[in-house]
Amino acid sequence: MGKYPRLSERRACQILGVARSTLRYAEVPLVDETSLRHGVLEVVNLYGRYGYRTVSGLLSGAGWQASEAVVRRIWREEGLKVPAKQPPRARLWLNDGSCVRLRPERVNHVWRYDFVQGHTYCPWSRRWRKFRILVVIDEFSRECLALYVARTIKALDVIDVLSDLMLERVVPEFIRSDNGPEFVATILRNWLKSLGTNTAYITPGSPWENGYCESFNGKFRDQWLNGELFYSLGEARVQIEQWRIHFNTLRPHQSIGRKPPAPGTWLPKTKAEKALHLSLFPAIPTPQEVKQRLSLQ
Question: Alpha helices of 17-154 — where are they, by DSSP H?
Fold first, then answer.
């Protein structure tokens, strides 16, 4: 080796105190991540309340070849912040209707419903008016079956929404809910009993027993409802329904393998409906689109 041709590589490394692998190290060429970095930033600008895991799933669905670790590194280098998470709460006890005792085993096995509150704003009177949203979810597939918006929702309104869903799909075996007056009404319980659907009520004052419901409601409020200003009830109905379509067909869900709950289940009936949906939820940019925009700069 060099000045000492009879000296072996092993002996030379032993004298110098270095590893033999350093002599065989080949420099790995750096990959140009400019387009991927711009793609991450574009998705973050479109959906500001999504974390890096959801952003990684959206990019993978759009054709990007990037692992979650790479997206996380770019996320941190750009100084982006992950939305704050709610601290875990301990379970004191579990009722028969809790999501731990009664776990969904297949589609249409367990549905659950709950209420979320929103507001509309009148700029002339400068007043806020409340409205309610009835949320219906299939716990196994995580698909949002309905988001019914109205000023007031009573037990008969709940029956109307459920009957439409059951005619379109099938009658579920269980329906999980809290002990709200609309859900424990005698007319609703008798109607479900006549269909063969069992009611699974959680323990009063124990929302952690309805984990699927609280998780969806938190994402719905944090990632969409809190960031929108509705001027009328009709506007709220249209935009909330478009969010339901986005949640079911595009947004990846972590608990089902970073896939949307129900991809391909919605097709726009008219060009105006498609334009409306894209105006609220723009398509995720593909690698070719980002590279083309960078080349034009």
Answer: 34-46, 52-61, 68-77
Q: What angle do CA 187, 206, 155 make, to 5 degrees?
A: 15
What pLDDT score was predicted for residue 215? 85
Q: Which of 136, 118, 138 is nearest to 128 (CA)?
A: 118
Q: Which domain holds residue 248?
A: 110-266
pTM of the model: 0.72
Whether 2 is covered by a domain: the verdict is no
* Per-residue tokens: 150: 């109205």
CATH number for the domain including 143? 3.30.420.10
Query: Position of tokens 């008219």?
Result: 270
Interval 177-204 mean pLDDT: 89
Cα-based angle 22, 25, 30 (whole degrees, multiple of 5): 135
Contact (CB, 8 A) for 58 and 40 = no
DSSP H helices in 78-202: 155-168, 186-195
How many domains does the chain divide into? Answer: 1
Mean pLDDT over the full length of the chain: 83
* 192 domain residue, yes or no: yes
Question: Does a structural domain hold residue 159?
Answer: yes
Other CB atoms within 10 A of residue 257 CB: 8
